[in-house]
Design a protein that fits this description.
Shape: globular
Oligomer: single chain
Number of helices: 20
Radius of gyration: 23 Å
Strand content: under 5%
Structural class: mainly alpha
Length: 493
Amino acid sequence: LKTRLLAQRALAVLRMNNPNFDYRSKDGAMPSLRSIQLKYMPEVLSQSFYHATILPLALLTGLLGYGALPSRAEWPKNFHRFMATYLSAWTLCVAADWLQGPYVYALYEAYGFSSHEIAQLFVAGFGSALLCSCFVGGLADRFGRKRGCIAYCLLYMASCATKHWKSYWILMLGRVTGGFATSLLFSCFECWMVSEHTVRNKFSSSLLSYMFGMKFTIMYLVAIASGFVAQGGVDSTSFAPVSENSTLYFGGNLVPFDMSACVLVFALLIITLVWEENYGDDAPDAEAQTAGSSLMEGLTTMCRSAPLLSLCLLLSCFEGAMYAFVFNWTPALETDTEMPPHGVVFALMMMACMCGASISTLVADKVSPLRRLQLIAVLGLGAFAVATMTASRPGGAHVCFLSFLVFEFCVGVYFPSIGTLKSELVPERIRATMYNICRVPLNAVVVSLLLTDLTVIQCFRFCALLMGAVFVAGFGIRKSYCESVPEDSVKAK
């Protein structure tokens, strides 16, 4: 049945692109999926330069992913269970984020809000993430990282619920709760995993590198799958109010948000029932700190440690460039003569990310995380230099697209590498606090980009400068890389 449905879906796509093609066999029977692939795949792949890139990049992605798989004989007892426990919840939580991401702007536009009002809503989301980063880490270290992950699920479900109202202020509330949730997603989950891996289970650092590689490879796979699932949901129903003159809507662009909320329910059950709690100290009541004192301790520790300051600069610059790229890749590829297939381009960029994550895993034992980060900084700088010369220009879109794939490859290498580096440099006592402090300048960069009116070319030049800053920041870490950051830091009074 599944094969039959896939065949019918493939025929529908082909018929949409070419309504007059003859797809039935001589006896009038519906062709099989394999016959469709053999007969019409060349036609699909030859539609554009972007379609022609699918097959070679997919093969490369598959080969690298297969090569990055470790031998299970190397895994210690309970590692398989630990990996399944963490990755099952992480996969669902990140899927909830990917499902709704592409439809936030489209939903606001469907409600009839102006571009200025939509910009205000986006600024509110990143601004709340910036504010939340100042204190949520201390709360997670004090009250528990597992509770922080549960709070993410609840806040994001609340954010999804607000999307059903055509009300600026209700949607604004949803952006604020969504910003808080995003800070928790990219700090508490990683802190919980690193603590369980290194403190409770005492697994090796090489397995930690593998966990990071697997985590982000799965994230990119989920991103691709979520795009198709969300699109199917949007196409299945019409966007409309529940009744005439009602401000409550359903269907259409709201379906991905409902899917996201449902996925989070399952994630919440796994976290609540299966995960164990861990804290910034060995016990939750070792020292009752307030969120403010934990924040001050984190700031004091960072100011007294050149590697941690450099780490914060490196993270903010690279991820700031990544967000700037996200805002500008679409107009950079659009020309007067060609409109790129955005879904295909997005899938190809995710494949490039998966290649980078696999390479990071393959070279983890041979190339240190810091060296990897400096290498991709140089590669990213070159990619943005090419993009600056080719973006939005006739005849340059395809070269610009290839430079984007290079940068997305760098993103794939970046996340496992920075995760490993943070696990080595940041004290366990204030891990969540430090992770969120590092996100404060990152969110400040993003808000600044949203509030300015930089052209695509200017933005890519700015990204190239940020890549140069990433490379320089690596030397600040390298100077003291072999020295451990003291676990019992001097506390702020």
